[in-house]
Amino acid sequence: MRLSELSRRSGVATATVKFYLREGLLPPGRRITATQAEYGEEHLRRLRLVRALIQVGGVSVAAAREVLAALDDDSLDHNERLGTAVWSLPHGRPAGPDEAADPATARRRADRLLELLGWGYGPATETTPPAYGMLVTAIAALERLGYPCTVEDLEPYARALGRLAEHDLDLVERYGGTPDEQVEAAVALTVLYEPVLLALRRLAEAEESRRRFGSH
Amino acid sequence: MRLSELSRRSGVATATVKFYLREGLLPPGRRITATQAEYGEEHLRRLRLVRALIQVGGVSVAAAREVLAALDDDSLDHNERLGTAVWSLPHGRPAGPDEAADPATARRRADRLLELLGWGYGPATETTPPAYGMLVTAIAALERLGYPCTVEDLEPYARALGRLAEHDLDLVERYGGTPDEQVEAAVALTVLYEPVLLALRRLAEAEESRRRFGSH
Predict the structure, then answer these.
(1) Which runs of E-coded beta strand occur in chain A?
(2) What distance in Å separates the CA atoms of residue A76 and residue A79, rounded to the nearest whole number?
(3) CB-side exposure of A108: number of CA atoms within 13 Å?
(4) Mean pLDDT (10-residue bins), chain B, 216 residues
(5) Measured between CB atoms, which of A11, A203, A213 is closest to B135?
(6) B12-18 long-range CB contacts below 8 Å, 24 or more apart?
(7) Which residues of A156-182 are buried (b: 16+ CB within 10 A; e: fewer)?
(8) Which of B162, B189, B193 sits opposite A204 (nearest CB)?
């Protein structure tokens, strides 16, 4: 398909598609004349993923480029590609100015939690996923703002998300036929389900608060 | 305590504390001289909440002011204040430019899900919480980006978050002695646990992907 059809089918403006091409977020099409190129279904899929990352996930262009590089890295096996792409997803919200406070306590807590779960990360190393750093920062913020949490407080959340991860991966297998499509689906679904989860949590809390404190 | 001590104990720069006072995010202290005011523990608590909202939650100053107004509204009973404060929490990430696409299908799906759960919202009305709009937008984004989800796909997430909400409210009761403190804790914990949840989800997915596709 031509650029105009790619734009129409994806709902992304042609100027934006051209911007993504220039920024290397979308591979170039197959050139057919000096001024025209041909795009395939893989471009459409990739374009949807880029929009999920940038528009829903709040990920920067530079960070999206890194995630896509992990996704396209042929030197990794399927599991490694999938894990690396999801791990390397940056947290959309930039850390606050003093989030750099020493997170030693938070780090120990995160390590003990992961050990308890048997999630096999152990203390941080070079290959520690960004999601681990995100967890440490979040635990440190709770501590700093007067709501210290113990490993026991965190465990129910981790167990519940562990069970939901099975469901997440079932969806990945459903949407992704080929290994390439599966890796793309894993990244897109990770990002796209985040606001679903956060919204459902707030509704669930309001419901539980009504049950517990409601007068009617 | 004086402003300098409030700043020291909260870890928030005096210039920032003054900015929050000017913006009405922090109630004024008790004036003791023409140039000095006295602040109490309630100021410290409120300051921590404001930082949770703005720095961790990515909420704007204007939106934080609205949440705090719901929290201070004496015309509401405890459950209503708690529910309203959590409901009125805006989603930190601004919606993308075309998130305004007709969400009729997404809305029907959200309504059927809430009905199935018995969460008692029914179709959107004037008092529908922002979290409902956040859910509809998130479902519409999944649909638009080629990953349509059914009510059955969403149900396991909702059930899991429903169970976690009991745990959330246990924490609220533990941290909040007085009803005022409970409402503040509910808002702070809702925001502060969001990155914890998202980080644990990514780690859980990587773990599940290793189990399912890993070669070692």
Answers:
(1) 30-31, 37-38
(2) 8
(3) 5
(4) 91 91 92 91 88 80 82 76 72 50 81 88 61 86 83 93 91 82 84 88 86 70
(5) A203
(6) B12/B47, B12/B51, B17/B47
(7) ebbbbbbebbebbbebbeebbeeebeb
(8) B162
One-letter amino acid identity for A204?
A: A
How far apart (Å, rounded) are the C-alpha atoms in residues A193 and B198? 10
CA gyration radius for chain B? 20
At residue A57, does pLDDT exceed 60? yes
Query: How many CB pairs below 8 Å do chains A and B form together?
Result: 281
Q: Which of A92, A96, A207 sits opposite B119 (nearest CB)?
A: A207
Angstrom distance (rounded) from CA A182 to CA A78: 9
> Which of B:161-190 have CB within 8 Å of A?
161-169, 171, 175, 185-186, 188-190
Handedness of CA B74, B178, A147, B11 (dihedral sign): positive
Best mutation target, B145, B166, B182, to test chain A (most A CBs within 10 A): B145
Q: Count the residues in chain B.
A: 216
Alpha-carbon distance values, B46 to A169, A179, B61, B142, B188 (Å): 41, 49, 14, 36, 10
- For chain B, the structural domain boundaries read 77-213
ipTM of predicted complex: 0.81
Q: Across the interface, do B199 and A131 touch by the CB < 8 Å criterion?
A: yes
Estimate the share of chain B in helix, then strand, then coil, as percent rounded to the nearest 5.
65, 0, 30
Q: Are the beta carbons of B52 and B194 closer than 8 angstroms?
A: no
